Amino acid sequence: MERFPEFVLNHILLFSLLAMILGLLIWNLYGNVLSGIKQITPAEAIRLINHEQAVVMDARSSSDFNNGHILNAIHVPAAGLSERGNKLEKFRKQAVIMVCTNGTESAKASRVLMQDGFESIYCLKGGVLAWRNSNLPLTRESG
Predict the structure, then answer these.
(1) Do 45 and 113 fall into the same domain?
(2) Do the domain assignments include residue 129?
């Protein structure tokens, strides 16, 4: 242990890379928690929808949305989210559940909504894939 600092100095590039990889791993695991975005399971999403009248916003592409989405979901493509701010104003005080294919795009969209002043934002952990894997229904009706 006495020679550890010397070992680190002799291999500074390797330890820099190790520190960077560890930082990225921690950010990947805890980034959404640190940014204030709450990840929820499909069961928790159902509870929010049924008991707190949560609004489901689907950030997927139009074709993915039309192939199947959660009942009464509002299609809000992540690419045009900032332009639709005024149309989403009426949902600012409600609980909002952001959904995408696997949970990554909805986290980005949630950050945009949080910056716009939305108070209660949740992300469906695992997205529509997790919803399907939980044997929950999707609809093709317009929402």
Answers:
(1) yes
(2) yes
In the predicted model, is pLDDT for residue 143 greater than 60? no
Picking from 88, 82, 79, the residue whose alpha carbon sits closest to that of residue 57 is: 88
**Tokens at 30, concatenated:** 């805890």
* Share in percent of the chain as helix, strand, coil (round to 5): 50, 15, 35
CATH at 76? 3.40.250.10
Sign of CA dihedral 76, 80, 81, 86: negative
Kindly tell me if the per-residue pLDDT of 99 is higher than 90.
Answer: yes
Question: Helix H segments across the chain?
Answer: 4-10, 12-34, 42-52, 62-67, 104-115, 127-133
pTM as predicted:
0.76
